[in-house]
Amino acid sequence: MDDLKTKYLGLINAASDEQALEDIRLQAVGKKGEVALAMRELGKMTPEERQTQGPLLNALKDEINSALAAKKAALGDAALNERLAAEWLDVSLPSRGRRMGTIHPVSQVTEEVSAIFADMGFAVAEGPQIEDDWHNFDALNIPPHHPARQEHDTFYMHRDEGDNRPPHVLRTHTSPVQIRAMMAQGAPIRVIAPGRVYRSDYDQTHTPMFHQIEGLAIDKDISMANLKWVLEEFFTAFFGTKVKTRFRASHFPFTEPSAEVDVQCSFEGGTVKVGEGNDWLEVLGSGMVHPKVLKYAGVDPSAWQGFAFGMGIDRIAMLKYGIPDLRAFFDSDLRWLRHYGFAALDVPTMRGGVSR
Ligand code: DAH
Q1: How confident is the model at residue 116 (pLDDT cuts 50, 70, 90)?
Q2: Share of the chain above pLDDT 90, in %
Q3: How much distance in Å is there from the Cα of 353 to the middle of ligand 1?
Q4: Do 38 and 151 reside in the same domain of the chain?
Q5: Which among 232, 235, 216, 222 has a CA at the least distance from the CA of 123?
Q6: DSSP-derived pairing of the beta strands 245-252 and 255-266
């Protein structure tokens, strides 16, 4: 028994891992181990011998088992210490950088434009993108069969047979928001309305969805002179340089008189630069709101008058930030978005002209 004890305590002490320990356990105190074999010998003994040997064997078994348990715990601690040393990690290191998203140029420019007009006392108004044809056309003095309805390449909403609701369109311009704002608020009023508009058209300078910003100012004595001042003030703030404007007589059903407005620019070196040179670039339509339009919107034209304008947001974004192709605005190409996008708190700066 002493031999067994010496042998197994020595083996246990020398075991280098848990598998070796398990082998030793089977060999010593397993069902067919040496201690079990010795137990079997008890049967051949006299009752007296059995009475002394039995407890001794049990004590041996207990001793081996607790040596195994102690060694197992020690090996476990050693393994854990080894892992702790090997898998050491500096949690104070800075984390891996995550790529930030960017602000789309359309969102950026919408913000810039809204901020400039807000400084001049214009609030922001909104209207639905699915608009009824009364707001989109009739109330703007574009009756059915008026050529402007065809010119707009309108997307009409599908109507089931027997659907008696008025026809709806994807709004072709932001001008219907003029009507909604005046009906909701009456006069005097000073609002801008940025948003999406839709026309069935697609080439380098046209996409079926694009963005406009509408302006409307109605009061007792507003004239074209106020319109010109507001627009020049806006372009100068937006392009960061003094910008001259040119008003050309034009026609829109919802304004009288009407004017298209050009900004001063140069086309030198294959790029457009606004605010310098002797060329002109058309950027918006405008005029004095037609008395019929005021009347449709519930504003008395004998007491109130004012101007309106509509401008392409994508267009002026291209001009300011030198973006050559409109279609890329809506391709959702991450490389384009990272290149032309803005950091969340970017301060707008000039980025040169647009190439032609
Ligand atoms: N709604 C016109 C368009 O989409 C733009 C426009 C012209 C708006 C003259 C106006 C305006 O408010 O007075 O082409």
Answers
A1: very high
A2: 62
A3: 25
A4: no
A5: 216
A6: antiparallel
- Residues 177, 260: one domain? yes
DSSP 117: H
Q: Is 273 in the pocket of ligand 1 (CB under 6 A)?
A: no
Is residue 137 situated within a structural domain? yes
- State whether the beta carbon of 287 lies less than 6 angstroms from ligand 1: yes
Do the domain assignments include residue 90?
A: no
Residue 103 CA to ligand 1 center (angstroms) comes to 27
Among 209, 252, 284, the mutation site with the greatest number of ligand 1 atoms within 8 A of its Cβ is: 252
Indicate whether 95 belongs to any domain: no
Q: What is the mean pLDDT of the chain?
A: 91
| Tokens of residue 156, six digits | 């009409």
* pLDDT tens digits along 308-318: 999 999 999 99
Give the model confidence (pLDDT) of 187-208 as tens digits: 999 999 999 999 998 887 889 9
> With bands split at pLDDT 50, 70 and 90, how would you rate the model's confidence at 90?
confident
154 lines ligand 1 (CB under 6 A): no
Q: What is the CATH number of the domain that holds 157?
A: 3.30.930.10
Residues in the chain, total: 356
Task: Tell me, in angstroms, the distance from the centre of ligand 1 to residue 237's CA.
Answer: 22
137 and 21 assigned to the same domain: no
pLDDT at 353 over 80: no
Count of domains for the chain: 2
User: Hey, which bits of the chain come out as E strands?
Assistant: 123-124, 130-132, 168-170, 189-198, 209-219, 245-252, 255-266, 271-274, 279-289, 305-312, 354-355
List C-alpha distances in Å: 241 to 265, 275, 352. 11, 6, 12
Tell me if 93 is assigned to some domain. Answer: no
pLDDT of 347 reads 63
Tell me the CA–centroid distance for residue 215 and ligand 1, in Å: 9
Q: How far is the CA of 253 from the centre of ligand 1 (A)?
A: 9
More confident residue, 306 or 76: 306
Q: Is the pLDDT of residue 355 over 70?
A: no
Range(s) of the domain holding residue 15: 2-84
Q: Are 11 and 129 in a shared domain?
A: no
Q: Who has greater pLDDT, 36 or 110?
A: 110
Place of tokens 């707008």: 348
